[in-house]
Write a structure and sequence with these properties.
Strand content: 25-35%
Strand order of the largest sheet: 1-5-4-3-2
Mean pLDDT: 84
Largest sheet: 5 strands, antiparallel
Radius of gyration: 21 Å
Number of domains: 2
Number of strands: 10
Length: 221
């Protein structure tokens, strides 16, 4: 996902398992969807529904979506390793190198985003203490690992934020131990602070997640 923080304005890129020919064929049967060309790429768009939407299906199972044709056009550039969204940032570079095959990667330039994002009082208070942050999620050994990086704006901000995160994780661990339904969910966690940067690592059980999904699927049948 790429954006400035402005509500309902952003670019999404999904990769894996998207059959371009099937999506294109089904989309063309919908009368309320228009198509247009940007170079060799086809962009589909519609004004139907609560908000306008546009998307384009690329090769190798990628799909780019956004609120309109212009956003999707920029998204295509980003998906191809070009465009403004690909600009380097130390935290983003660190996240990219933490796992070989991450399933999800999230990054936010908080300092820049808070100028356009609609934040409540608590969120703005937190944003005032953070320069940037991000998280990467992926398989690790037998579990699902989440690694988060928070770059605070000062040493004075980093210590209380570290304590708040440690407290939150400790509380989550206690609740998991006291709840039989959550037993075995949280495998390990650690919080490391170096200067203004805080790194959080949380590992949860893959088998626990799979079993819970199976139970929910049985309920739905």
């Amino acid at each position: 996902l790429f954006g400035t923080g402005e509500r309902h304005k952003g670019i999404g890129i999904l990769e894996g398992g998207v059959n371009a020919s099937v999506v294109t064929e089904v989309t063309r049967t919908r009368e309320y969807i228009q198509d247009s060309k940007v170079g060799k790429k086809t962009i589909f768009s519609t004004d139907k529904g609560r908000r306008p939407m546009a998307f384009s299906v690329l090769k190798k199972g990628k799909i780019v979506f956004g609120p309109d044709r212009d956003y999707v056009t920029e998204g295509i550039q980003i998906a191809n390793g070009k465009g403004r969204g690909s600009s380097s940032h130390p935290v983003l570079e660190s996240l990219n190198n933490l796992m070989e095959t991450p399933g999800i990667l999230f990054f936010a330039d908080v300092k820049g985003a808070k100028e356009t994002a609609e934040l409540d009082q608590w969120a703005m208070m937190m944003a005032d203490k953070i320069e940037s942050c991000g998280m990467v999620i992926g398989d690790h050994d037998s579990g699902l690992k989440m690694i988060g990086i928070i770059e605070t704006n000062s040493l004075e901000s980093s210590e209380p934020m570290e304590n708040m995160i440690r407290g939150g994780l400790a509380m989550m661990e206690m609740k998991a131990k006291d709840n039989k339904r959550m037993e075995g969910f949280l495998e390990d966690y650690q919080v490391i602070r170096e200067g203004r940067t805080i790194r959080i690592e949380v590992k949860v059980s893959n088998s626990f997640i799979i079993e819970r999904i199976k139970k929910e699927m049985k309920k739905a049948v």
